[in-house]
């Protein structure tokens, strides 16, 4: 399911990808600035810079996606840890009760 802060785009290889709204906003602002430079000077001004900027934006988007995945994984691990602590505390209490019951019988 796509979140509201994502934009669908198609890369040069025809693969459909999802770009975060954050990176999409940056790309849009940079594109507008490139358009302004092209109108003021000429296409040659940004010709070499454009592919570099696109690569940087793609890498930024990839890192943001990985970060989001790591945050989800971290949350799942925190939940697992909490469950393990709860289970450990429960077993510890049961063991203590069993030992106290054993002492009373002796």
Task: Please provide a written account of the structure.
The chain has 106 residues and is mainly α. It has one domain (21-105). 76% of the residues lie in helices and 9% in strands. It contains three helices and two strands. It has helices spanning 21-40, 44-47, 49-105, and strands at residues 6-10, 16-20. A two-stranded antiparallel ribbon has the order 1-2. The longest helix is centred in the C-terminal third of the chain and has 57 residues, at 49-105. The radius of gyration is 27 Å and the shape is rod-shaped.
Give a quick precis of the structure:
This protein has 106 residues and is mainly alpha-helical. It is 76% helix and 9% strand. It has one domain.
Number of helices: 3
Helical/strand content category:
mainly alpha
- Using only C-alpha atoms, the radius of gyration works out to 27 Å
Number of strands: 2
Proportion of strand residues: 5-15%
Order of helical and strand elements: EEHHH
If you average the pLDDT, what whole number results? Answer: 84
Summary keywords:
76% helix, rod-shaped, 3 helices, kinesin binding, mainly alpha, disordered N terminus
Draw up the topology in text:
Elements lengths: L5 E5 L5 E5 H20 L3 H4 L1 H57 L1
Antiparallel strand pairs: 1-2
Helix pairs in contact: 1-3
């Amino acid at each position: 399911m796509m979140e509201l802060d994502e934009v669908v785009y198609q890369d040069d290889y025809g693969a459909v990808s999802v770009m975060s709204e954050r990176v999409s906003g940056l790309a849009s602002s940079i594109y507008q600035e490139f358009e302004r430079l092209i109108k003021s000077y000429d296409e040659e001004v940004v010709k070499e810079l454009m592919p570099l900027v696109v690569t940087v934006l793609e890498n930024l988007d990839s890192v943001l996606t990985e970060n989001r995945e790591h945050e989800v994984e971290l949350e799942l691990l925190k939940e697992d840890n909490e469950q393990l602590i709860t289970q450990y505390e429960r077993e510890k209490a049961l063991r203590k009760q069993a030992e106290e019951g054993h002492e009373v019988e002796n």
